[in-house]
C-alpha cells in the first residue's frame, strides 16, 4: 500500500519533529501544521462534508493540539504517535461540532473545493473528457454516499480506507478492540455499497 | 451463489480502490495555516486604524495586541514587524478577529486602553513591569519617569524606565506618551518624535503651557489648602482645586513641612524619598 510506505519513511521524521517540539514548541509547531494541515483538512472534509466546517474543525484541532503539547511532560510527548494523535483530536472536535450543530451534512462539490483537483485528475483527462467527467461524477457520488452513513461508520471508513491508517492504529485511536473496529469498517462498507447500489438501481448509471 | 459472492467481493474491492483515490483531492485553504498560528499566538494579523496622530497599523494575535506602528504602507510595516518580532504577519480578516478587536477603534479615540489584552512576550520582566504600570496612567494625566520607577519598586532605575518606554512596542495603546520628565519637559517619543507626543498630550486636554510655566518656577506639585493633599499638577483631583485654594509646592519635603499628605490617586513621592530625575533625558 503506497500510504504505508510513505508513513514508514516518515516515522523517523516524526520522531525528530517530536524531539524538536520538546526543545522549542513555539518554533516548531509551524512545522507540525505545515506537515499535517493537508491531511487533517481532507479528513475533516470527509467527515463533515462542508468546506467551512472542515476549516473550523481543522483550526480548532490544531489549537487544541498546541495547548495540549504545552501541557504534556517530555515523556508523554516523546511517546506520542503524532499522526494518529492529531487524527484523534480532529475526530473529537468533529464529533462535538457535528453533534452540537445537529449538522446535516450538505453535499460538497469537490470541484468547488479544489482547483488542484483538475491537475490531480490530469491522468484521467488524458483518456478523454468523457472519462474525466465520469471519474469526477463517481467521486462526487461516492462522497455523497459516504455522507449518508452514520458518523460512527463514516469515521472508520475514512480513517481506514481514505487516510490509510492500519487496524492497530485505528484500534488505539478509537480505544476499541481491533475486532470491533474491523467489524465497524466492514458494516460501514456494506452499508456504503448498499447506498451505492440503491443509487445504481435508481439511475442505472453507476458502474 | 459462488459467482454472486465473487461479484460482490470484486465490487467491494473496487469500492475500496475508489475510496483510496480520494486521498489527494481536497487541498486545504491557504489561510488555514495563518489562522491556526494566529490563534495560538505564533503569527500575527494586522489592521489599520486612524489615531490622533494619523493612520497606524495595529498587529495582534490571540494572546493580545503585539505592536503599533505607523508606516507609509502595509508592506513596509510587514517587513519591519518580521524583522522586529521574527513572526509571520498577514492582513487580518475582521470577521476572523477576536471579539476585543472591536474595542481598539474606540480605545484609540478615547485614550482608555487598560482593558485591552496585550502580548508583551518579547519584553523583559522589567520592561513588562514598566509598560503595565504605564498602562494604568489615566488619560489626560502625566507622570514623571521617576514616578514609574518608584511605582514598580525600582526607584533608582529611572534611566532604565526611559529606555524601556523608548522600546515600547505598543505606543498609543500603552500610553508611554503620558510619561514625561520630572521637570515637566515632555521628553522624547518613539512614535514620530516629541512633536507627536506634544500633539497627543494636547489632544488629551493637557495644558502644556501651564506645565511649562510651573516647571519654570520649580513647582512640582499642587496642594489644596482645604484638604491638605498634594498632587501632580495633571492629577484629576489637582485640576479641580479652586484657584484660590491652589498651593504650589516644590518638593515633598516642603509639602510635609506645610502639613500636606500625598494624594492616593496620583501617588506623588512621599517626603524623604530620594529625588532622582532624568536630568539629561
Chain pair with largest interface: A-B, 42 and 25 residues
- How many distinct helices of chain A? 12
Mean pLDDT of chain B: 87
How many separate domains make up the residues of chain A?
Answer: 3
- Tally of strands of chain B: 10
CATH C-level of the largest domain in chain B: Mainly Alpha
> What is the fold named in CATH at topology level of the largest domain in chain B?
Arc Repressor Mutant, subunit A
Regions with little confidence, pLDDT below 50 for 5+ residues of chain A:
1-8, 107-125
Question: What is the element string of chain A, with H for helices and E for strands?
Answer: HHHHHHHHHHHH
Roughly how many Å apart are the termini of chain B?
Answer: 97 Å
Low confidence ranges of chain B: none
* Overall mean pLDDT of chain A: 79
Q: Which architecture name of the largest domain in chain A does CATH use? A: Orthogonal Bundle
Number of distinct beta strands of chain A: 0
Could you give me the name of the CATH homologous superfamily of the largest domain in chain B? Winged helix-like DNA-binding domain superfamily/Winged helix DNA-binding domain
User: Can you give the helix content of chain B as a percent range?
Assistant: 25-40%
Strand content of chain B is: 15-25%
Amino acid at each position: 500500500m503506497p500510504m504505508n510506505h510513505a508513513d514508514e519513511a516518515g516515522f523517523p521524521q516524526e520522531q525528530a519533529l517530536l524531539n524538536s517540539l520538546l526543545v522549542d514548541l513555539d518554533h516548531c509547531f509551524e512545522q507540525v501544521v505545515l506537515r499535517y494541515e493537508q491531511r487533517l483538512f481532507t479528513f475533516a472534509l470527509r467527515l463533515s462534508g462542508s468546506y467551512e466546517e472542515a476549516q473550523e474543525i481543522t483550526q480548532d484541532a490544531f489549537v487544541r493540539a498546541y495547548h495540549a503539547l504545552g501541557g504534556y511532560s517530555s515523556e508523554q510527548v516523546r511517546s506520542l504517535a503524532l499522526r494518529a494523535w492529531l487524527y484523534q483530536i480532529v475526530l473529537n472536535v468533529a464529533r462535538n461540532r457535528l453533534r452540537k450543530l445537529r449538522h446535516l451534512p450538505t453535499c460538497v462539490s469537490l470541484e468547488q473545493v479544489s482547483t488542484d483537483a483538475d491537475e490531480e485528475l490530469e491522468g484521467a483527462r488524458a483518456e478523454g473528457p468523457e472519462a474525466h467527467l465520469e471519474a469526477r461524477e463517481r467521486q462526487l457520488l461516492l462522497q455523497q454516499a459516504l455522507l449518508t452513513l452514520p458518523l460512527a461508520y463514516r469515521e472508520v471508513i475514512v480513517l481506514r480506507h481514505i487516510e490509510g491508517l492500519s487496524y492497530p492504529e485505528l484500534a488505539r485511536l478509537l480505544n476499541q478492540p481491533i475486532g470491533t473496529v474491523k467489524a465497524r469498517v466492514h458494516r460501514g462498507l456494506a452499508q456504503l455499497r448498499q447506498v451505492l447500489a440503491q443509487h445504481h438501481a435508481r439511475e442505472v448509471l453507476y458502474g | 451463489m459462488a459467482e454472486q459472492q465473487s461479484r460482490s467481493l470484486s465490487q467491494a474491492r473496487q469500492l475500496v480502490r475508489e475510496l483510496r483515490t480520494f486521498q489527494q483531492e481536497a487541498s486545504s485553504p491557504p489561510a488555514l495555516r495563518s489562522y491556526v498560528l494566529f490563534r495560538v499566538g505564533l503569527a500575527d494579523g494586522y489592521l489599520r486604524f486612524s489615531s490622533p496622530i494619523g493612520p497606524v497599523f495595529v498587529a495582534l494575535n490571540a494572546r493580545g495586541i503585539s505592536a503599533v506602528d505607523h508606516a507609509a504602507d502595509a508592506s513596509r510595516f510587514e517587513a519591519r514587524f518580521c524583522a522586529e518580532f521574527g513572526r509571520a504577519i498577514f492582513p487580518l480578516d475582521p470577521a476572523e478577529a477576536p471579539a476585543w478587536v472591536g474595542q481598539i477603534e474606540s480605545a484609540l479615540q478615547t485614550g482608555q486602553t487598560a482593558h485591552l489584552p496585550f502580548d508583551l512576550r518579547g519584553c523583559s520582566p522589567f520592561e513588562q513591569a514598566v509598560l503595565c504600570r504605564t498602562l494604568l496612567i489615566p488619560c489626560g494625566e502625566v507622570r514623571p519617569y521617576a514616578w514609574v520607577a518608584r511605582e514598580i519598586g525600582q526607584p533608582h532605575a529611572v534611566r532604565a524606565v526611559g529606555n524601556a518606554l523608548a522600546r515600547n512596542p505598543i505606543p498609543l495603546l500603552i500610553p508611554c506618551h503620558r510619561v514625561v520628565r520630572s521637570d515637566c519637559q515632555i521628553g522624547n517619543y518613539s512614535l514620530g518624535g516629541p512633536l507627536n507626543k506634544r500633539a497627543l498630550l494636547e489632544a488629551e486636554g493637557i495644558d502644556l503651557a501651564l506645565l511649562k510655566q510651573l516647571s519654570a518656577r520649580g513647582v512640582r506639585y499642587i496642594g489644596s489648602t482645604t484638604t491638605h493633599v498634594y498632587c501632580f499638577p495633571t492629577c484629576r483631583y489637582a485640576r479641580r482645586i479652586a484657584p484660590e485654594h491652589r498651593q504650589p509646592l516644590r518638593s515633598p519635603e516642603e509639602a510635609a513641612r506645610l502639613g500636606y499628605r500625598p494624594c492616593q490617586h496620583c501617588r506623588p513621592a512621599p517626603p524623604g524619598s530620594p529625588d532622582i530625575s532624568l536630568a539629561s533625558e
